[in-house]
């Protein structure tokens, strides 16, 4: 009895499925963060966030690291002052980044106008911005409304903090005596002290004159009163 080899039928993969799998494998993910404004905390904050995002990105089998960008927290209200943020945007426009991870809307931009402008610009490029705290993906339909509300709240919080800091500095300056007033008070005290010293010297001289003995006669060296 002759045995025939089983017939193997190969089913080709769908072109769309292959393309999507390739895109997923090549998904380049970057992270953006703002570090503490205190110099002694900047290094620790940056290293901690760098380690966190490195582990998060590298642990995902369909992601690859596209860079970690960080700026000082003091420049949160204006993206133009954030050099690394603008460098990240340039990389996005150069098609070097597919997804941007950030902790929250306030970390991405505290100015609502800037936040919406850049999320829209990246959305047109097909680049998603994922806000971890708010669980927002900028490519989703309702993302813009949620970003607007969160961005407005973050901007209001930033302006409130700035106003409080300014008020505190102004109050501290008002309570602190100015150098002009201090110099004037010191000069006045010195003048009063000199006048008091002169008065004491004059008083002492007058007292000495009143209690001095009568002059003796040259003839006998005794006073006239004792002779009488």
How is this structure best described in words?
With 228 residues, this protein is α/β, with parallel strands linked by helices. The protein is 56% helix and 13% strand. Strands 2-1-3-4-5 form a five-stranded mixed beta sheet, sandwiched between helices. Strand 1 (27-35), helix 2 (39-58) and strand 2 (63-72) form a beta-alpha-beta unit. The radius of gyration is 42 Å and the shape is elongated. The relative contact order is 0.08. The model is unreliable at 218-228 (pLDDT under 50).
Oligomer: single chain
Structural class: alpha/beta
Largest beta sheet: strand ordering: 2-1-3-4-5
Helix content: 55-70%
Q: Number of helical segments?
A: 8
String of helices and strands: HEHEHEHHEEHHH
Between the first and last Cα atoms, what is the distance in angstroms? Answer: 181 Å
Low-confidence stretches: 218-228
Spatial shape = elongated
Estimated share of beta-strand residues: 5-15%
Could you describe the largest sheet, including whether it forms a barrel? 5 strands, mixed
Radius of gyration: 42 Å
Number of strands: 5
Mean pLDDT: 75
């Amino acid at each position: 009895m002759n045995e025939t080899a089983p017939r193997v039928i190969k089913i080709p993969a769908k072109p769309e499925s292959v393309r999507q799998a390739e895109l997923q494998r090549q998904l380049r993910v970057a992270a953006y963060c703002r570090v503490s404004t205190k110099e002694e905390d900047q290094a620790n904050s940056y290293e901690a966030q760098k380690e966190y995002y490195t582990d998060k990105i590298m642990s995902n089998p369909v992601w690859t690291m596209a860079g970690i960008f960080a700026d000082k927290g003091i420049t949160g209200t204006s993206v133009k002052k954030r050099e690394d943020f603008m460098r990240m945007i340039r990389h996005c426009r150069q098609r070097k980044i597919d997804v941007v991870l950030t902790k929250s809307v306030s970390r991405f931009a505290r100015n609502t106008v800037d936040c919406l402008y850049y999320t829209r610009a990246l959305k047109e490029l097909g680049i998603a911005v994922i806000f971890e705290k708010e669980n927002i993906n900028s490519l989703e339909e309702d993302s813009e409304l949620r970003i607007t509300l969160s961005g407005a709240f973050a901007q209001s919080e930033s302006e409130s903090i700035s106003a409080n800091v300014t008020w505190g500095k102004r109050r501290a300056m008002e309570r602190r005596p100015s150098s002009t007033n201090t110099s004037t008070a010191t000069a006045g005290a010195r003048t009063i002290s000199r006048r008091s010293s002169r008065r004491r010297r004059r008083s002492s001289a007058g007292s000495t004159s009143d209690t001095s003995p009568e002059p003796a006669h040259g003839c006998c060296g005794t006073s006239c009163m004792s002779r009488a």
